[in-house]
Amino acid sequence: MPLRHGRELLMIPGPTTIPDAVLQAMHRPAVEIYTGELVALTDRCLVDIKRLFGTAGNAYIYAANGHGAWEAALSNTLSGGDKVLVLESGRFATGWGETALSMGLEVEVLPQAFSRAVDPAAVRARLAADDAEEIAAILVVQIDTASGVMNDIPAIRAAIDAAGHPALLMVDTVASLGIVPFEMDAWGVDVAMCGAQKGLMTPPGLGLVAAGPKAIAAHADADLVTRYWDWTFRDGPEHYMKYCGTPPEHLLFAFRKALDILLTEEGLEAAHRRHALLAEATRRAVAVWAEAGALSFNIEAPSARANSVTVVRTTDPAVARRLVDTCRDRYGVVLSNAIGQLEGGGFRIGHMGHVNAAALLGTLAVIETALASLGVPHGAGGTAAAIAWLADATRD
Ligand SMILES: *Cc1c(COP(=O)(O)O)cnc(C)c1O
């Protein structure tokens, strides 16, 4: 008996739910691209992007997804044959490394188990052994949506400094910007990139990149630069140069509205707090369900579990698939299957972006209903534990 009719909840780690006001902001005619309101809109978006990244450096908006922003970061700062060190912690830093390889860069992966965060001590040791300073850039993800890990970027920066290594530090914030604090300048990050379709609640298609002084200096000698991604061209005097052609106008209208919601209506710190509370409520529920042994957290260390997604392992692969199918088809909640090394062995609960207590508690209750309905062994009262914890944490 399906109970899915009604508004479906999209609880996946991206793309995320788009607020109605953001969708409505796109429903308008196109405008002229050389003068007028679009020029001012670009300027205001760039100011807010710098604020989100926490940088006084340069910011760029691409008509691209996160993969495009990865390529922008690499092509603007590196030359063919340069070596990059990829700090593995799930699926996405290695994906960025695959992009680097395809561009003619040399790629070395510092391996890490799928259940763990990057180990800063291992980063320090690897860099200390690079006497010839062959490593030109270090690629790391702040939150990896495949493993559900959050890496400690300041600790990784400290490890690089302790080794006295000059490599550029590049950070993927696709699943963390707007969700957890990120301070590009204060943390010594040289290049940061993001896509707007996760914490930033915008339809997929905008890639954001910020460059600090060391990256801008490296740009002067980079030979991988091509016209579309080129920072220098995009810094040119004409508005169309900022997009290397026609701006993705409707995505910009949407993005502007999403920025207003995030930065003005809610406030960035409140959004961080909301994500922390909803993520902890999710973990409280999963911890109870896991007591029966059929489910477990993918990330071993509680302090390394991300606030944007919770990745759950299932001992029986069939359970993950049936659970995801049942939540969607019978109860109207869309979860995500596990990917990367955990493919077929778990599921992912997205809790980032335009998500509130109603959506999250509804999701947890639906998962618990599906666990019971499918006869999957689980500790009783996971959703109740989440409710009790949230009631306590939000009391005035
Ligand atoms: C989703 C995601 C990406 C990929 O973004 P696309 O827009 O699909 O290219 C990159 N990095 C992380 C951490 C992600 O979660």
Any overview of this molecule?
- Belongs to the class-V pyridoxal-phosphate-dependent aminotransferase family.
- Residues 42-288 form the Aminotransferase class V domain.
- It is a single chain.
- The model has no long low-confidence stretch (mean pLDDT 98).
- The protein folds into two domains: 2-16 and 267-393, Aspartate Aminotransferase, domain 1 (Alpha-Beta Complex); 31-263, 3-Layer(aba) Sandwich (Aspartate Aminotransferase, domain 2), CATH 3.40.640.10.
- It has helices at residues 20-25, 37-53, 66-75, 92-102, 120-128, 153-162, 213-219, 231-234, 249-266, 268-289, 317-329, 357-374, 382-393, and strands spanning 9-10, 58-63, 83-87, 106-110, 135-141, 143-144, 149-150, 168-172, 191-195, 206-211, 295-297, 309-314, 333-334, 336-337, 346-350.
- A seven-stranded mixed beta sheet has the order 2-10-9-8-5-3-4, with helices on both faces.
- Helix 11 (317-329) crosses helix 12 (357-374).
- It has 396 residues and is an alpha/beta fold.
- Bound molecules: pyridoxal-5'-phosphate (PLP).
- The site of pyridoxal-5'-phosphate has 12 residues, from helix 3.
- Residues 14, 65-67, 92, 141, 144-145, 172, 174-175, 195 line the site of pyridoxal-5'-phosphate.
